[in-house]
Amino acid sequence: MKKKTIEKEISFEGKALQTGRETRVVCKPNDAGSGIIFKRTDLETRPVFPLSEAMFSSGQRRTVLSSSAGEVQTVEHFLAALWALEIDSLIVELDGAELPAAGGSSIEFLEGLTNAGIKEQPEEREFIKISEKEEVSVGENSLSIFPDAEFSVSYQMEYASGAIKDETLKMCRVRETFKKEIAPARTFCLKAEAEALLKAGLGRGATYENTLVLDETGPVETSFRFENEPVRHKILDLVGDLYLLGLPIIGRVEAKRSGHDLNVKMMRRIYEKYVCKK
Ligand SMILES: [Zn+2]
Question: What CATH number has the domain spanning 2-126?
Answer without folding.
Answer: 3.30.230.20
